[in-house]
Amino acid sequence: MATFVYRITSYAPTRRDVARCGGTAVPYGTREQVSAACVAAAAGFALDDGADHLVIDNPMPEGFFSFSNRLAWRRHGLAGLFPPDLSGYHDGAHVPLGTGLGLLRAMLLREGAWCRLHAESGFFLHVGERDDIYVGGTRPFAEAAARARRLGLFVESVERSPYDTGLDETDDQPAADGAFWTQLHCLVAERGGALLEERYVANAYRWHRLTSSSQISAARRALAPRARLTVWPDLTEDIEAVRDAVLRSERLALLVEQAPDGNFRQVRVAEPWMGRTDAAHPQIKAGPGCRAALVPMEPAERRPLLAGVLPDADGVVRARWRTNRTPADERRTFLGSLRDGDVVTGTVASGLDDVGVHVNLDHEWGHGLGFLRVPEMSWEHFESVDDVAPIGRRIRAEVLHVDWQRECVSLSVKALQPDPWRRFVDTHRAGDVVTGTVANSVPFGVFVRLAPGVEGLVHIENPVHVENRVHIENPVHLTESADLGPAGSERTVVAGDEVLVTLLDVDLESRRIRLSLGGRTNEAGPEPT
């Protein structure tokens, strides 16, 4: 057991704004530099200990910080460290110090992967949920701590790491020994087939459809060391039954599909919309040779036919898989509590140019989960996102959709506001003459604001009077003038001018209003394209 334990951070340990879970204390723009400094500091501790190899403990490619599929683009930070099939990345694997430091970097960058690292000497490295590192061993590391401080990091002595193995909650399963495989052979013979779930690391699965003794033997030879094995009823060809189960499901489940060529499709979190058949491309494929199943994810819902953990070559089960809830588990639970139409509050955290803004929802695990797109910010026209949703602004919004795959909650502020278009249509009709304010000019006409959030277009081919046509000059910039009027009696308007217009056509569905300048018209010009 480690006697000397240190916590390393890039921020002062006294900062209270990072005490809450679910967030990050390191700005995205400086994360690379901070990670490099932390890796250098950790390397100093390891070299002072004399550790040249590290042992991987409780590895996962995702599911510590997040389950979002946005983390998969670099194979969760494992690209370049392990082969594509992740062989060598398993519980109990021995890796060189350089590979261990590469894993540390991936964890600090929050690319998805997480594991504990330790050496036979008792030295260990743990990455925490608040951008902190816990390092320790059986000897003091005064020199290594001093070097870390010279790198600009904060180092403090602590009693123990919160990821100490003594704090693990485990679900000890029996060994997948000879008796396990004998039972599996009997199940397959009785049922005609079974689905073998191989959890080779935490939150990552391989699937084996077993219908014969030879397939069982082949699957057994291909299993990763210390994998957790779970046996489920066989896949079904009744795709409609699977779709119905997905539509009815209110629990987290994995959708497992096998193509006619025998390959398994990517396992996804099954959401009700995946069961719909009215979409152009149904998410659950049907056809000859297609099979599928819905596998529960929640521990309380998992009732397999058989389960066990692969022992080491000497027959001893050394894997102790943690069942402690991770920040990602907590975030997923929070997402599961939200429903379309719920009203939430939060603070604008960051923006994506003209796409939208990220919102920290007012919940312990709501950091960065909300996303407010530009069209959902306001009914009224605005020039810049900073005008309506600047960083730091408090907002109240309606939940439009919860995206489990991207771990994102789509929000709408304007959904909680009266629709100005509907209110305008309820009180006006074609032929009405109203007063508006020139909003801006474009090459094909002038937009006139008729009410807050409602604008109509005076098109250049719409007549002002029976015998006269609209004429526009210099229509590009708001500050430039637009000349609207009959030949020989031009009228110049600029943004902000009040004008009298006639409603030619009001289309609520497409949100378009065609206007004619002036108080009367005998004919409508062609609709703008």
UniProtKB/TrEMBL annotation:
GO terms for cellular component: cytosolic small ribosomal subunit. Residues 341-414, 431-518 form the S1 motif domain. GO terms for biological process: translation. Keywords: Ribonucleoprotein, Ribosomal protein. It comes from the Bacteria. Pfam families: S1. GO terms for molecular function: mRNA binding; structural constituent of ribosome. PANTHER family: 30S RIBOSOMAL PROTEIN S1, SMALL RIBOSOMAL SUBUNIT PROTEIN BS1C. Belongs to the bacterial ribosomal protein bS1 family. This is S1 motif domain-containing protein. It comes from Streptomyces chattanoogensis.
